[in-house]
Amino acid sequence: MLSFEQHFHEFLIGVIVKMPSEREILIISYQQIKKKKYICIQYKIMIVLKDILLVGAGSFLGGIARYLIALVMKGFSASFPWATMTANIVGCLLIGILWATFNRTNPSSQLNLFLTAGFCGGFTTFSTFSKESLNLLQTGNYTAFCLYALGSVVLGILAVALGFALAK
To answer: What is the pTM of this model?
Structure first.
């Protein structure tokens, strides 16, 4: 698709070749510019909608992956939120790998949106992490709270660094 500048340039070439009067040039110019701007605005809206759908699709898949981890780890331990911590650590590792890879390869912004904001955003569960941390505090399980909160944050940061280093 041609950019607005390219459309305008083509229009100007057409005006010069036809050589209409100055008044005709001004009328045609205004109408063409108005039309091209409208097309550019429509095009930008379509890009934004496409990006929103990419993030939504990635989030959908990330949420499914997160749910599958919860199913697999369901009977692992009732007193500690292992599934949430696992999803957070794996998600942090994945986003570290993606971050380094995207810095090196400079992929399309759509792929970046789909995988980072979409998939990783739907997969990692820091809102659930916060809720479960508060629950551990409210139930007086201070040792589990400290292990869970510190473990998730520290191991998450280390996993991002490891993912970044592995993909570099």
So the answer is: 0.64
User: Residue 158 has which token pair?
Assistant: 């280390």
3-state SS track over 77-134: CCCCCHHHHHHHHHHHHHHHHHHHHHHHHCCCHHHHHHHHHHHHHHHCCHHHHHHHHH
Can you tell me the distance from the alpha carbon of 111 to that of 108, in angstroms, rounded to the nearest whole number?
5
Q: Which residue has the tokens 């809206």?
A: 45
| Residue type present at position 163 | G
Helix (H) or strand (E) holding 61: helix 22-72
Q: What is the pLDDT of residue 6?
A: 55
Mean pLDDT by 10 residues, the chain (168 residues): 53 47 52 63 78 94 95 85 91 91 85 92 85 92 96 94 93
Do the beta carbons of residue 123 and residue 89 sit within 8 Å?
no
